[in-house]
Design goal:
This protein has 1 helix and 3 strands. The protein is α+β, with helices and mostly antiparallel strands. Strands 1-2-3 form a 3-stranded mixed sheet, covered by helices on one side. About 15% of the residues are buried.
């Protein structure tokens, strides 16, 4: 069992992009990678932050562990 039911994943957006992600739909890896990390750590949730350094803005997503995938 994990020490915490939550893990944190921070993704920085590349320079010259509009800002942080507003959706995970165009980036399946942004969903799959936290799923793998939750399996490894035993966590049930991942708080995924999409950070845009140029504008210092961020979007946050709560990803729940999908036990059907693994």
């Amino acid at each position: 069992m994990a020490a915490s039911p939550f893990i944190l994943e921070v993704k920085a957006r590349p320079a010259k992009t509009e800002g942080p992600r507003s959706s995970l739909k165009q980036m399946p890896s942004y969903y799959i990678q936290p799923q793998l990390e939750m399996v490894c750590t035993g966590a049930q949730y991942c708080i995924l932050e999409s950070y845009h350094p140029e504008t210092q803005q961020a979007s946050f997503f709560l990803v729940k562990r999908d036990n059907i995938m693994f």
